[in-house]
Hints:
Blueprint: H1 6-14, H2 16-21, H3 29-35, H4 41-57, H5 62-75, H6 80-90, H7 95-108, H8 113-125, H9 129-142, H10 147-159, H11 163-177, H12 181-193, H13 197-210, H14 215-227, H15 231-244, H16 249-261, H17 265-277, H18 283-294, H19 297-302, H20 304-317, H21 322-334, H22 338-346, H23 356-368, H24 372-385, H25 390-403, H26 407-420, H27 424-440, H28 444-457, H29 462-475, H30 479-492, H31 497-509, H32 513-526, H33 532-544, H34 548-560, H35 565-575
Helix pairs in contact: 4-5, 5-6, 6-7, 7-8, 8-9, 9-10, 10-11, 10-12, 11-12, 12-13, 13-14, 14-15, 14-16, 16-17, 17-20, 18-20, 18-21, 20-21, 21-22, 22-23, 23-24, 24-25, 25-26, 25-27, 26-27, 27-28, 27-29, 28-29, 29-30, 29-31, 30-31, 31-32, 32-33, 33-34, 34-35
Amino acid sequence: MLYKNGIVLLSIVLFGTFVFTCPLFGRSPKADAKEKKTLPRSEQAAYFYMEGIKSNILEGDSARSKAWFQKVLEIDSTHSPSLYELASLNALDHPEEALRYSLKANAIDTANVWYKMQLGRLLIATQRYDSALTLYDQLIKVNPDNPDNYRLKALLYDQLGEPQKALEVLETAENRFGLIELLSSHKLQLLLNTQQFDRAMAEARMLVETFPYNEEYYVVLAELYSMMNMDHLAQKNYDKALSLNPNSLRVLASLNDFYKRHNDNVRFLETAAKLFSSKEFPLETKLKFYEELFQTPNFLRNNFIQMGDLVRTLAITYPEDLRTLELYARYLIAGGSIEQALQLYKSHVTDSIPQKKVFNEIIGMEAYLKRADSVDKYTTIALERFPKDAELRLQKASVTAYMMEKPQEAVPLFEEALKYAQTDSLRSVIYGAIGDNYHSLGDDKKCFKAYDKGMKLDTTNVSIYNNYSYFLSLRNERLDKALEWSQKAVRLDPNNPTFLDTYAWVLYQLGRYEEARIPMRQAISLDSDNNKELYVHYGDILYKLGDRFMASYYWKKALENGYDAQEIENRLKQIE
C-alpha cells in the first residue's frame, strides 16, 4: 500500500497544515458528508477518499476508513482506488468480500500491476489456485523483474501437486536474478519433499557457503549427512548451527532426534532438557514427548533421574496446568513415592478453581493405601466443592459401604447419588451399586429389584449382567436367565476373567461341566491377580469331570492364595 499510495502520502505530507486544521477533521463520515454536499460530486469523492487514507494510515482506524471508501463508491461505483483499499482492509478477516472488491478494481483498471498483485494473493487466500496460476503467468510477463511473482507461482504449483514445475519456476528465477535466499530456501524444501537428496545436498552446501550465518541451512545439511550415515559430518554441522544459535528450537529438536536415533541417551536427554526449558517449545509437544518416553519401561528404568529432571521442569514452568501435575505424580508413583505423589495432589485441594481430577486422584490413592478415614475425608471435601456431582456421591456411598463396612448407612447415600444423576447410564451404574449393597446386607429381593431397574436404563451395563447372574447361580434360581445374562456379559467384555468365571459357574450349576471347562480355563489364563475364587471353581469343575489330580492341584493353589482352609480340606477329602 505504501508504494501504491506514494502520491497520496506525499500530498498529506505537503498539505498537512490544511488537513490538520480543517474543522471537519476527526468527525464521522456521515457528518462530513452532509457538510460536503455543496461540493461537486467528483470533489466529494476525492475528499472522502483522502479521509479514508488518512483514517487508515495516520489514525489506524480501519472501520472508519472503510466507511469513507464506501461513501466514495456511493458517489462513483467505479472508483478503483477505493475498491483496492477496501480489498486490502478486508483481506484478513473477510477474504471473499475482499476478492469481490479486488475483481471489480481489476476489471475497471486492467493495466494496473498493483491491482493484479493484490488479486493474485486473494485468489490464493480463497484457494482459487488455477485462477491464481493464470494470473501469475500474466504478472511475470508484464512485470518480469519481481522475484516474488516467481515465488508465488512456484508455491501454487507445489500446492497443486506439481513440485517439478515449481522447481522449474524457481530455477528460471535463479537464472534471471541470481541467488535469492527466500527462493533458494523454497527450492531446497521442494528438493527434500521430492526426495532428490543429491540435489538437495548440493543446494544446502551452496546456501551454507552463501549465507553462512543462517543456522537453518547447517541443520538441513546435517540431516542429509545423517541420512547418508555420514555422522561425523552431521555432528560437525550441528555443532556449527548451535554455535550460531544455541537456543534455536529447530536446531535442538533436530539434534535431539539425531541423538535418539543413535541411542545416545545422555546427549538425547541433555537436548531434551533445553527444549523443555524453552517456553517457545509447545507444551503439547513436551507432554507427548514425555509420555512416549514414560511408556517405554526400559528407557524409564535406565534414565529415571533424568526423567525426573524433565518432569520437574514441566511442573515448575507450567504450575497451573493439571497435566504436568499428573505426569509428575505418575513419575513419583513409578519410583515408589506414592506418599509424595499424594502430597503433591493435596497441595492443590485449596486451589481457587477446584479440579475434580485432583480429588479423584487423592481418593484413589488413599483407597489403594486402604485408609478409609482419609478416603471419607477427601470425598466429603470434594462434595463441598462439587455438591451436585453424582459420581462423587456414589464414591462416598461406596466408601461407606465397603471400606468402612457400614452398608446400612450407605443406603441413603446411594439414594442421594441417584437424585443427582443426569444420565441413564450413570443411573444404571448407581442402581447396580445399590443392588450390590443390598446383596451384602443379605437382601437379595431388593438387590434384584435394583438390578432390574439398572438393566432397563442401560442394556450394556455389563457389571449388572455379571453380578445378577452370579448371585442367581449361588441361589440356584432362574439359571436360564443367569446363563443368558452371563453370556451377554462375556460378549460385551470377552477378556474379563471375572465375567468368564461367572459364565463357567452358571454352566457348572446347570451340570454342563465340559462346557464350563472352556471359559474357566480362559479365565485362569487371563487372570493376573491369582484370584483364589477362580482356582476353587476350576478345581470343582475338574472334579466333576473326573480329573481328580488337577482338581487337587487347583484347590491347593486356592489355599496358597488365601482361600478358607477348612473349605479346601473338605474338598480334598472327597478325593481320598
